[in-house]
Amino acid sequence: MLLGAGMRASRFEVPLAAIDRSVAVALQEDLASGDMTTEACVDAEAPAVAYAVARQSLVVCGGPVFAHVFARVDPAANVDAHASEGAWVQAGVPLWSVRGRARSILMGERVALNFVTHLSGVATKTRGYVDALPAGCKARVTDTRKTTPGLRALERYAVRVGGGRNHRDNLGAAVLIKDNHVASAGGIRIAIERAREACPHTSRITCEVDTLEQLDEALAAGADVLLLDNMSTPMVREAVRRACGRALLEASGGVTMARVAELADAGVDAISVGGLTHSASAVDIGLDFEGAL
């Protein structure tokens, strides 16, 4: 498969293995029994060119996945990028084109669109949150582990394309002591002390707190990062005052776009938003065959 220059030059990366795994599963769902309609109606060698076109304003995301779908269906197909990953485009702009056998394009159409409408939706929503940050603030918008099973790597890629940052990749990537860990361990201090003793010296210890009393206890126990769970903005401001730079602070829990600026102004270092991935609406992208009526 040939990729357009814009696709090759993209500064965003997603592991090829993750793309291939997700695309293989999706194509198996759609093509396990072939394509009865296409095989009946379309000549096996009929050529075609089709353009994926934005039907609304959106942040472009998913070009490498779009290309890989058609590579899987037919290695002879050629895909070109007409808009860069991360670009904000208006309705009517062509994003990618695919040239090859009409049958191959028709067989891959829905799977390719399912991926890019979802990933561009995640990127578009993320861009809205990032743009809501006050200019010059230190806070960053991050995702969470609330991702679609099997699509985490792709959704986290879409968050980066939208201008956001990634949280921990998986449970083995970092220490994050949450309320149920605290309950199981017998308290915040003992949970932090056990984590400090058991984990490598290079690991930061993050602890979730939902009261200022818990914050004080976690600070005293030496937590490196405090996750401020569902705190009001006045509570967040007080948490920042009490921490006084002794730990990084992350605001989390039900964060709406309208609250991003006030949380950033309160002085947190990060704002994590599960909705970037679990509640992003698919954007509207269509595939138009050249010369179609």
Short structural summary:
The chain has 293 residues and is of the alpha/beta class.
Supply database-style keywords:
293 residues; TIM Barrel; elongated; six-stranded parallel beta sheet
pLDDT averaged over residues: 94
Radius of gyration: 23 Å
Largest sheet, strands/sense/barrel:
6 strands, parallel
What is the total tally of β strands?
Answer: 12
Residue stretches low in confidence (pLDDT < 50, at least 5 long) are 1-10
- Count of runs of 4 or more consecutive helical residues: 12
Q: What is the helix content?
A: 40-55%
Looking at the structure, the CATH topology of the largest domain is TIM Barrel
CATH superfamily of the largest domain: Aldolase class I
**CATH A-level architecture of the largest domain:** Alpha-Beta Barrel
Count of folded domains = 2
Overall body shape = elongated
Beta fraction: 15-25%
Q: Give the N-terminus to C-terminus distance in angstroms.
A: 28 Å
Describe the structure.
Helix content is 43%, strand content 18%. The protein is α/β, with parallel strands linked by helices. The strands form three sheets. A six-stranded parallel β-sheet has the order 6-11-10-9-8-7. A four-stranded antiparallel β-sheet has the order 3-5-1-12. It is elongated and about 70 Å long. The two termini are 28 Å apart.
